[in-house]
Amino acid sequence: MVSEHRGRRLAVTVALLSMLAPFSIDTYLPSFPDIAAEFAVSPVYLQQTLSFYLLAFAVMTLVYGPLSDSFGRRRVVLGAVALYVLSSIGCWLAPNGHWLLAMRVGQGLSASAGVVVGRAVIRDAFAGAQAQRVMANASLMFALAPAVAPIIGGVLHDAFGWRSVFGFLTLFGIAIWAWTAWTLPETLPAVARQSIHPRAVSGAYWRALGSGRFMGIAAMVSVNFGAMFLYISSSPELIYRHLGGGPNDFWRLFVPLVGGMMAGTFLSGRLAGRLSHAHAVDLAYGLMLTGALINLALATGLEPTAFRVIAPLVLYASGMSLAMPNLSLMALDLFPAHRGLASALLGFLQTGSNALVAGLLAPLLAPRLPTLAGGMLVLSATGFMLWRLACRRHWLPASAALP
User: Fold this and answer.
1) Burial 196-234 (b: 16+ CB within 10 A, else e)
2) CATH says 4-182+197-396 is which class?
3) pLDDT of residue 403
């Protein structure tokens, strides 16, 4: 275990590594129209720069988990961030839409390491309520990224054009590499390393995939976040079409959403050691379902305004962020000897579902607000039904009931 001071610094490092993913998604969203115009591609084609990024992100999580279990957390994540910097330079200098799509895949292949390794680092170094508090603190700082990223992207886009957004991501990646190299210790001791032999890795993945308990929790995490990501990936349509905004108006969606996420992660940290994981998730689903129901009612019965569209999403985001640290820790506790692999599979399933949301559901549902709100309700209700099933069948790990 580490000291309180080093624990705070470790939480900052994990949060920064995790920020690569939302910054890579949200920063360039205000630039969609100009990129499409310069490269003469359709909005649907440009949407694939997001969905292909997410697919690459999801696939590589399955690689980084076992690599970090075998070679250690520090070495793997530093190599991945270096690759992210090179891919960002490629996006910055992209001569056409096909090159941009390829380099976005490169960003996805590298950014996933931060999320996978970050979760494993926290569980390596902390236990019990302290692990939940550190996970919540890292999530609290990480939650700032979706609010700050589109604002930075909008300002850079207006001042210097869309290429400056990827120039910023290049510098951001360099800064994170330098900070991580300075602050991140190796949290996985040599005696805890696992074999990287394909048979050992495939066997461990097969056990995780065959675990109904693990897969159930992973599905909850995926649909919970997917319901909110439906609005994030639809934000160009939401801001430009439904709310009549411009490139500098993305903050109207992302700042309140992040406020809700920060409230939920703050509450999760405050409840650590007071409520069990299971009771915290019960409370979280109450908030999520209430937000989703209000959202559908307002979208169906009233003319859209920024407040009517966004306020229910804030309530949903609070519940989602309260559930996330608790569900993630429960999932990792099911495979204590393979936390990197378990974190990888958790990230793969979540990001893979996000790719489907961005590539299929968002284009289908975004043209009409009632269908968008209905999609959120269906996804959140699915997560709740899975949760109640897991509780009734006693699929939760023993740590779920600990105060």
Assistant:
1) eeeeebeebbeebeebebbbbbbbbbbbbbbbbbbbbbb
2) mainly alpha
3) 46
